[in-house]
Amino acid sequence: xxRRDFIARSVTALAAIPALSASSSALSLESAVATAxxxxxxxxxxxxxxxxxxxxxMATFLLASHPKxxxxxxxxxxxxxxxxxxxxxxxxxxxAEPRVRAAAAEYLQTEPGWIALTDSTTMGLGLIYSTIQVxxxxxxxxxxxxxxxxxxxxxxxxxxxxxxxxxxALYDQGGQTTxxxxxxxxxxxxTDKTRVxxxxxxxxSTGVRLPIAEMSKVVAEVNAGRDHSDxxxxxxxxxxxxxxxxxxxxxxxCDFLIAGxxxxxxxxxxxxxICGRPHAWEAVEPVIPSFGPSVGVWLGALPPDSEYVTPGxxxxxxxxxxFDHRWAxxxxxxxxxxxxxxxxxxxxxxxxxxxKQALAEMSNVTLHTPMDExxxxxxxxxxxxxxxxxxxxxxxxxxxxTASASPYPVSYARIAPSLINTEEEVDRTTAAIAELSA
Length: 438
Ligand SMILES: Cc1ncc(COP(=O)(O)O)c(C=O)c1O
Fold this sequence. Notes:
Low-confidence stretches: 1-34
Oligomer: single chain
Distance between the termini: 37 Å
CATH topology of the largest domain: Aspartate Aminotransferase, domain 2
Shape: globular
CATH superfamily of the largest domain: Type I PLP-dependent aspartate aminotransferase-like (Major domain)
Structural class: alpha/beta
Largest sheet: 7 strands, mixed
Bound molecules: pyridoxal-5'-phosphate
């Protein structure tokens, strides 16, 4: 295979979305008339997005469309930078990132100083896992359900330190799993050597949502018998839970929550956060120098123990970024809070339950995502007898529905009803799957 073909195929595999045909890719954008957001009205929420109306978008969890408030903020910053790059930066750099951290902290009901700003989930995972304290002879425990970004960054860490990485299956059949099964398997997998537990809140491989709060309690039990320096660190890739589940950082209870904010949260593309507790931040080292207040310390303008140097600012990779995107992230958190975290969660769960109920009635369809709302969230993975995942997504693409195939060694077709969908769109999607499976 030519190198160019290989790269093209790899990229397509990661996106796992069938290409649109030439005719359907011709832009037929029916510009959404964006009136002011009425957060109590789902049609008004939907109208904040310029998503093309000739498709049903069931894979926006891969990459967000920017809702109007986010798009407007990006545009404002872009204009500022385009007209006076150095001047605009100089005027805003000291206040913009603290403002974004404050909005993220309010959303997670936690401390702004605990939040680092990144460009993606993958960057966040890479930053944490590339330096997390683990020695030769110790072990990093992860799962067979995790994303490439977790698996690969842990493998790289193991190669550099001599620590081992072990993958455990928390369930065999996603569709049938229970909280009990997950907790039992987790408890049994942790040994005296386990120093890091790396999991994903909502598996994009199966749609299973892990009971993170209950898992944190198991971690606390393990840590009760350990020295502080040897405590088990519980790290969570939260990208498919953030922006759906109404949970605070304390309720989750993990040590690190790492997530891109450019999927369910509808933040600017190329943004993400890491939220970490102070003792957890002490167990990692910054890889890329921050451009935050630590520059002031270096220049002698701030004392080394300046209160402005928080773990979050210190661990946010520095350098000049696409600030027009990063500085607009606070609007995405505000957008969700204007609607209400509780209502967002209820809406996405209701649409997903509606879709799963329809799929469960199809004799030739196997659901790999639990029906139980406590163990599922916004992603539904399924198989149609006699049709591979690619064939399913291509069939749906032909019906004007964008779905995706999970980019994992065992791949399933996926749909992800979200805030931008209606009940009618869910019904049309499941009707198309029924037609294929008949
Ligand atoms: C569970 C999980 N983690 C990480 C990623 C990568 O996210 P990002 O694009 O923010 O790096 C994905 C991809 O969508 C994913 O499904």
